[in-house]
Design brief:
Elements lengths: L12 E2 L4 H12 L10 E5 L5 H10 L2 E6 L2 H13 L6 E5 L5 H5 L6 E5 L6 E9 L8 H14 L6 H4 L1 H10 L2 E8 L8 E2 L3 H7 L21 H13 L2 E11 L6
Parallel strand pairs: 2-3, 2-5, 3-4, 5-6
Antiparallel strand pairs: 1-8, 6-9, 7-9
Helix pairs in contact: 5-9, 8-9
């Protein structure tokens, strides 16, 4: 993994996988939960460099709008869309949570997904969460949580809000009905490799180039080596997962 990138997502690994195959499988497991049909309008929130949005447009024949608060990533995504001749079906817009409604209004999209950036009718999300192994009263767990949040730049939140149960509660508070929820990191099998194994291998590889700062470019996107060490520790200790899957749909009021 010597290619530098500003975007990287953790995915399930199997023996013999290369990263591109693992990432594609991870994305394609998410897509069917949106009940996609040709011609639908889909929002990719936190689209990064646009690779997932472009993959979805080609895979399902839908139109995708990618939104991200990083202008450099948006410009890169636009360039890639033009190169792949998908600009007519995939557009990229600079924005964040606060201005989504002003940009699109209510019920503009048929589906929404976001990968590791949880913050409509059908929603599918891969999110970073604390698992049931996280003990908020354990000083070591508290320290690990604070280090992970600081080193990765995901922001500080109470442990209860970033917990698996907290994510479900947040969706329900937003008037969304949970259709499916699953922590993919707990899947087992003889060929399954833990998600953090790629980090462990990279630590001893002198060819790996790590990002010099949060959000920079490196073999693992904007992940610095110090942040990767913390994430690996969190993976080994089991209080953290980067691939909690939540699928929800908006509860529509009954017509009278």
């Amino acid at each position: 993994m010597n290619e530098l990138s500003s975007s990287f997502h953790f995915s399930r690994l199997s023996k013999g996988d290369i990263q591109a195959v693992s990432t594609a499988r991870h994305e394609h497991y998410l897509f069917p939960h949106l009940n996609l049909r040709s011609g639908m309008h889909i929002l990719d929130f936190g689209c990064g460099d646009g690779s997932t949005a472009l993959e979805l447009a080609e895979f399902a024949g839908v139109s995708v709008v990618g939104v991200d608060p990083d202008m450099l990533k948006i410009e890169k995504a636009k360039q890639t869309a033009r190169k792949r001749r998908l600009s007519n079906r995939v557009t990229f817009i600079y924005g964040d949570y606060s201005n989504l409604r002003s940009l699109f209004g209510d019920c503009y999209f048929d589906g929404i997904y976001c990968i590791e950036s949880l913050k409509v009718f059908q929603l599918a999300v891969y999110e970073w969460c604390w698992t049931s192994e996280m003990n908020p009263d354990d000083m070591n767990h508290q320290r690990l949580a604070a280090l992970l949040e600081t080193s990765t730049g995901i922001g500080n939140r109470p442990i209860s809000e970033r917990s698996y149960e907290g994510a479900i509660e947040a969706l329900q508070m937003s008037h969304l009905q949970i259709v499916h929820e699953e922590d993919l990191s707990t899947r087992s099998g003889r060929a399954v490799i833990p998600w953090y194994a790629c980090l462990d291998l990279a630590f001893s590889d002198p060819r790996i180039r790590w990002s010099s700062s949060i959000g920079g470019q490196g073999a693992f996107g904007g992940l610095t080596k110090s942040a990767a060490v913390i994430m690996s520790q969190a993976g080994h200790l089991k209080p953290f997962t980067p691939m909690a899957l939540f699928v929800a749909k908006r509860v529509m009021p009954e017509s009278t």
